[in-house]
Amino acid sequence: MIRCQLQKENSYGKWPKTEKFFSVLKCLIFPVPTLLLLVAMLGAWACRFVAPSVFMPIAYLGLGFPLILIVYLIWIIVLLIFGAWKHLLLLLPTVICVPIMWDTFPVNLSSKPVVEANARTFKLLTYNVAAFHYSENAASKIAKLVEKEDFDILCLQEYIEFRAKENEDFSKLLAKYPYSTVGDMTVDSHNRVVTLSKYKIVKSGVASKGRGNNRAIYSDIVVGCDTIRVINAHLASNHISHTDKQEIDSISHGMKVDKVKDKIHTLDKKVSNNYVIREQMANDIDSVMAHTKTKVIVCGDFNDVPVSYVFHKIKGERMRVANEELGWGYNYTFREAPFYFCIDHVLYQSDGFECLDYERVRVPYSDHYPSIVQFSIKQ
């Protein structure tokens, strides 16, 4: 009796009404998010080629790409569930975004390269130490990390010399690194970039000057029979203060509309200005690299993500990225919520070095995580 009733209801068209509902849903609702995601994905892909000074909004798409990618993948699953094949075809052009997906979420299944017996190897650390002021006894903790890993070259950003020398552990550590290149100190800040080396530095200088303490310095270091150039970069920060972070958090907790608009305008102006400064610094570094005849490594706090004009300007055609070669997953290096961004990088000349090991060390001594890379020099 129940079966007959169901069949009768179906014959009168109640179930087809459900199908009609989903059909209307696909026609009216699905196109909007599909088109928005298409524009966002292609915009993020294009931001590698468009300078922020030319068209600023596209830079924000690169910055937000990890979130865009997650929404994009979820939306594809939704379209598959509802069988919205036409909308899936509309997203077909996003296949060109595969390289930037890899830049953001690298997946390496191959084993690490084997070190040859006669290979000249060295171990490098890049670390924004946050002025040794982020956590209690930060200088001592960082010194012990360096002591344990026994690095050959240290590339530090936001380094404050007097705090390093005042700390007993770090002061002892400095004696093991007799060679150094130190960025100049500005009037308003003691923060500097510094490169410390166990190997002799035969030449050094400034690759780029930004605003305040932001600098890129180079050091020509003799490792065995080779001279390599290490560029230690701290590109322009967005200067998002603790107060700014609190106000951003308060936006989601009912801040008045007028105040939200004012705050967004202020932050946009601040961030936009620093995008342009980073762009100029990247151009400077690219110029220095173009005139460098030795093998080159560029590392440091770029304050920009892998999907950005600045990153790709420095990377160019001949540089590789340590994280992409041996990293796994989303290796964010800035660790303060909600800004979990991968902004600290190690790039190396592909015909000059072999990347033997990469590690992002999750220690809470700074607002950044340090990156450790072991290299061998190609003959």
What characteristic shape results from the CA principal axes? globular
CATH architecture call of the largest domain:
4-Layer Sandwich
The oligomerization state is single chain
Q: How many beta-strand elements?
A: 12
What structural class should be given to the helix and strand makeup?
Answer: alpha+beta
Strand-residue proportion: 15-25%
**Helix segment tally:** 14
List the main descriptive attributes of the protein structure presented here.
379 residues; alpha+beta; 12 strands; Deoxyribonuclease I, Chain A; globular; 6-stranded mixed sheet
Structural write-up:
With 379 residues, the protein is α+β, with helices and mostly antiparallel strands. It folds into two domains: 2-104, no CATH class; 121-377, Endonuclease/exonuclease/phosphatase (Deoxyribonuclease I, Chain A). 42% of the residues lie in helices and 22% in strands. The chain is built from 14 helices and twelve strands. The protein has helices spanning 2-11, 14-28, 31-46, 57-63, 65-82, 85-90, 98-104, 138-149, 161-166, 168-174, 242-251, 257-290, 309-315, 322-326; strands at 121-128, 153-159, 179-182, 192-197, 201-209, 215-223, 226-234, 295-301, 319-321, 344-349, 353-360, 371-377. The strands form two sheets. It has a six-stranded mixed β-sheet with strand order 3-4-2-1-12-11. A hairpin with a 5-residue loop joins strand 5 (201-209) and strand 6 (215-223). The chain starts with a helix and ends with a strand.
List the helices and strands and how they pair.
Layout: H1 2-11, H2 14-28, H3 31-46, H4 57-63, H5 65-82, H6 85-90, H7 98-104, E1 121-128, H8 138-149, E2 153-159, H9 161-166, H10 168-174, E3 179-182, E4 192-197, E5 201-209, E6 215-223, E7 226-234, H11 242-251, H12 257-290, E8 295-301, H13 309-315, E9 319-321, H14 322-326, E10 344-349, E11 353-360, E12 371-377
Parallel strand pairs: 1-2, 7-8
Antiparallel strand pairs: 1-12, 2-4, 3-4, 5-6, 6-7, 8-10, 9-10, 11-12
Helix pairs in contact: 3-4, 3-5, 8-10, 12-13
